[in-house]
Write a structure and sequence with these properties.
The complex is a heterodimer of chains A (161) and B (730). Chain A is mainly alpha-helical and 161 residues long. Chain A contains eight helices and two strands. Chain A has a two-stranded antiparallel sheet with strand order 1-2. Among the domains of chain B are: 163 residues, 3-Layer(aba) Sandwich (Rossmann fold), CATH 3.40.50; 189 residues, Helix Hairpins, CATH 1.10.287; 115 residues, no CATH class. Classes of the chains: A mainly alpha (161), B alpha+beta (730). At the A-B interface, helix 1, helix 3, helix 4, helix 6 and helix 8 of A face helix 9, helix 10, helix 13 and helix 14 of B.
Chain lengths: 161, 730
């Protein structure tokens, strides 16, 4: 598999979230219309990225329920197109490759195609599980009424984690 | 001789409970003041005069004047009502004593009320019988009253206290001043001038003389016809005169029509004046408000989009907040990719070495030595890599040359890994760089964002406040102008106002032209008359001609005199009004403009207030406006060549005045009215021991203030126990 194939295989993936997160997503991502009492992200992927990074920061991975209880959304390649963001995110993911994926970078180069595809799936799962961990954290705060209603809610929360 | 009110007393009249002796207020020539807080019987006191002069009472419930009989059940003191058992009667009334010349009068108006039902305050609980008007007369020196029986005589005595025509100037209740001098009515000042100057007598005289002149002319003409040789020519001239007279009459009629038009337009303009000023100001404010709204809208949009943009800073490479706290990850990745490359390199080298081992024993890194070093080595014939000579022509030297000329293109490398991910990871590192170099700047960037948000919010707040202030100004205007809050209303007022001005201008032009025509016609008439005179036979009896001439001259003289008298009076009024005005405002910090009376093309008089530079001043507070009017009222009284002989009876005319006006007011009225009885709240101070304000205490020491009464009510009691108590302070 070439670099390009590897990359486009990853970017074509659509991460999923648990259906139970939908109310939280509605509250914290406006998808284009401002309708919440809270500071909001725009598209879902922004909240998703934020949650994922929060999950990584907090080192909380949380498995998703079975596939039919989840919803997918925009493929990774379409998140903030033509930006450095996705590269940065993958960089963060791969910075923990041994621990999270069980391979170092060189190992990956020697895997059979089937194995490498598995790794790609694992990268996706990693993203989903960290995001789910972050969403869980947000959801708990939300339920407890501890989400501070300020324009700086997300950055303040991010700083404190 | 002036009429002076000696006393007023009440019997079970509103809060003035008790008999006349208990409630008697004695007054003197000069200024008399009754100080009372709200509810302490000020308006009730004033109502006594309404009863005296008009048999009416002002119903405080609906502010309408009502006939005594209809409101009697409200007039009776509740305390007295309560003490009257079913079937019993009580008397409620007022009594005024006044003196003029050598006589003194006592006037009593009252009614008897019989309680026929239980409920105290109902209209039909009381049967009312109006008692006969009692008027007693006494010579001042005798102190013994004798009743007056003749009803007409009684009326005359009441009227003599203040003549009905003059009551409007003498009898002031609150806003009455506004009504008396309503500058939007032509007649306001003109009527006063007419009253003061007996102009109507001149007018009657003019009519009379015109009649006589006409008769004498007819006589003269008759006589002329009998004797004249030039009859035809004379007749022609007389016809010409008739034509001219007819034309003149038409033009004069036309003039008066246009004067009327002008006057109507002027009245409309005056009525709209304040509204127009308001409407214009409102329009101006509306424009300001709408401009401010626009700025505010864009500021709000900027603020909102800034707020919305805050979270974008997580994902924007220029701010890269998302990378906060990921320094170690980035470092790890860097290490990893370094290691990755190293491993790869080794792997490849090993692979190559195993394939062509000879190439790799002296292996140098790819492309090394570099071209410059090789050049040096070739020139110096020495290999710096192994530090051995490499003379020209030797294998070593040739090898250096070979190295220098090595082909630039890489040989296609043989796959040494199954998946070549070097580019993938390399690109990650390169592309992600915007997110990898701002860790230190992020806290600062968050701080700056907060500061910027603060600035934008402050701007929105500031604009909001400015807008609020504009809106509140606009609301104030609405209240002052009592208009509905509609833009097109403002516009229609502006249009109406402009329309009135235009009509005034048109009428004024027409008036000017007509006046020109009239002047010319009069001239023609005068020369025609001269010609007629020349055509008359010379042997006419002198009496006919003389009669006619005298009458004509007299007519002209009286018309001129009338105009002169009128003009003089206007000038005099202006002078007096200004004097009073200066007195009234002397305690104010006002720059003190000038009141100017101006004759309008319609022949009426308008009042303008101009500043020292001659510009008309509009607006001013309600109190100020009333002062202006009051100055004119006082002028009307003070220009009277004979002394004004009637008292001023005033109820709270000061409520809209400031303190400084109030002080000026008391000083000024002393000079105009022989006696004033003024009921005021403004001098009351409930917290003071004497219940007097500082100004009240000051006034009590003034010589021109003759008496001061303080009215109080027993507070906190039921209506049926409410009684006004008077204390004579001076």
């Amino acid at each position: 598999m070439t670099s390009q194939e590897f990359r486009s295989n990853i970017l074509s993936k659509r991460p999923r979230y648990a259906n139970s997160r939908i109310p939280l997503l509605d509250a914290l991502a406006n998808k284009g219309s401002r309708t919440s009492e809270f500071s909001q992200f725009g598209p879902i992927y922004e909240l998703y990225i934020y949650a994922m990074m929060l999950g990584i920061k907090r080192n909380t991975r949380l498995s998703l329920p079975p596939r039919n209880l989840t919803t997918d959304f925009l493929e990774i390649g379409k998140w903030k197109r033509d930006s450095a963001l996705v590269d940065f995110l993958l960089m963060i993911i791969f910075s923990n490759a041994e621990k999270d994926l069980g391979y170092n970078l060189n190992d990956l180069e020697d895997l059979e195609e089937g194995e490498l595809n598995k790794v790609i799936s694992n990268v996706l799962m990693l993203i989903e599980e960290y995001a789910n961990g972050g969403l869980e954290y947000l959801e708990k705060l939300w339920e407890k009424g501890e989400l501070e209603n300020s324009h700086y809610m997300f950055i303040d929360l991010y700083k404190s984690n | 001789m002036a009429s002076i009110i000696n006393s007023i007393s009440f019997k079970n009249f509103f809060n003035y409970y008790g008999d006349y002796e208990d409630t008697r207020y004695d007054f003197e020539e000069g200024v008399n003041i009754i100080v009372a807080d709200n509810g302490a019987g000020k308006s009730k006191f004033f109502n006594a005069f309404l009863w005296l002069f008009y048999d009416q009472i002002l119903d405080s419930d609906d502010k309408r004047k009502k006939a005594i009989k209809d409101i009697a059940y409200k007039i009776i003191s509740d305390k007295a009502k309560n003490e009257t058992s079913l079937g019993s009667s009580l008397v409620s009334g007022i009594r005024v004593e006044y003196s003029t010349g050598r006589f003194k009068y006592q006037i009593t108006k009252s009614f008897t009320a019989t309680r026929i039902k239980e409920n105290l305050t109902d209209y039909d609980s009381w049967q009312i019988v109006i008692d006969d008007l009692e008027v007693d007369q006494s010579e001042i020196i005798l102190h013994r009253y004798k009743p007056v029986y003749d009803y007409d005589e009684k009326r005359k005595i009441i009227n003599r206290l203040i003549l009905p025509d003059l009551r409007q100037y003498s009898f002031l209740q609150g806003e009455e001043v506004d009504r008396i001098i309503d500058f939007s009515k032509k007649s306001s000042i003109e009527d006063a001038v007419r009253t003061l100057t007996n102009i109507s007598k001149y007018e009657e005289l003019v009519e009379l003389i015109r009649d006589i002149a006409k008769k004498s002319e007819n006589d003269l003409n008759k006589k002329t016809k009998e004797t004249n040789a030039q009859t035809d020519r004379l007749e022609k001239a007389q016809q010409e005169k008739e034509t001219l007279t007819f034309m003149l009459k038409k033009e004069v009629e036309s003039l008066s029509e246009f004067q009327k038009l002008y006057e109507d337009a002027e009245r409309e303009k005056n009525e709209l004046d304040q509204k127009y000023a308001n409407a214009e100001k409102r329009k101006e404010l509306d424009e300001k408000i709408s401009a401010k709204n626009r700025v505010l809208k864009s500021a709000k949009e900027e603020y909102d989009s800034f707020l919305e943009g805050i979270n974008n800073k997580f994902f924007d490479g220029n701010f890269s907040w998302i990378s906060l706290g990921f320094e170690n990850h980035v470092e790890d990745f860097k290490e990893k990719i370094k290691l990755f490359r190293q491993n790869r390199y080794e792997k490849r080298a090993l692979l190559k070495a195993s394939e062509s081992p000879n190439d790799y024993f002296t292996m140098l890194p790819v492309n090394s030595p570099d071209a410059v070093s090789l050049e040096n080595m070739i020139d110096s014939e020495h290999c710096y890599v192994c530090d051995r000579p490499a003379e020209k022509g030797s294998d070593a030297h040739n090898y250096l040359l070979k190295l220098k000329n090595r082909p630039n293109e890489n040989k296609p490398t043989k796959e040494f890994v199954k998946n070549d991910l070097e580019e993938f990871f390399g690109n990650l590192q390169v592309n992600a760089s915007p997110f990898c170099n701002k860790f230190d700047a992020i806290p600062q960037s968050v701080l700056r964002t907060k500061e910027r948000e603060g600035e934008l919010r402050e701007r929105v707040d500031k604009l909001n406040n400015e807008l609020k202030s504009l809106k509140s100004q606009r609301k104030d205007i609405l209240i002052a102008g009592a208009e509905s809050d509609e833009n097109d209303n403002a516009l229609s007022i502006i249009n109406q106002f402009k329309g009135a001005i235009k009509r005034m201008e048109q009428a004024s032009n027409k008036i000017e032209r007509l006046e020109g025509n009239i002047k010319e016609l009069k001239h023609n008439l005068s020369v025609t008359e001269k010609e007629i005179e020349n055509l008359r036979p010379k042997d006419l009896p002198e009496g006919y001609t003389l009669n006619y001439k005298i009458c004509s001259d007299l007519e002209e003289a009286i018309v001129n005199a009338k105009e002169r008298v009128f003009d003089n009076m206007v000038n005099l009024l202006e002078e007096h009004a200004n004097r009073h005005f200066q007195n009234l405002i002397r305690h104010n910090d006002l720059a003190g403009g000038i009141l100017k009376f101006e004759k309008t093309p319609a022949g009426s008089i308008s009042l303008k207030y101009i500043d020292s530079t001659g510009n008309e001043v509009h607006g001013g507070s309600e109190g100020f406006q009333r002062m202006k009017k009051f100055s004119v009222v006082m002028a009307i009284i003070s220009v009277n060549t004979t002394q004004y002989n009637y008292p001023l009876l005033a109820d709270a005319p000061l409520s809209a005045f400031g303190k400084a006006f109030t002080e000026g007011f008391f000083e000024a009225i002393g000079g105009v009215f022989p006696q004033s009885i003024v009921l005021v709240k403004e001098l009351y101070d409930g917290d003071d021991e004497m219940k007097l304000s500082d100004l009240g205490k000051k006034l009590i020491k003034e010589d021109n203030i003759k008496t001061i009464y303080l009215n109080t009510v027993n507070k906190g009691v039921e209506q049926i126990d409410l009684v006004t108590t008077k204390t004579k302070l001076k």
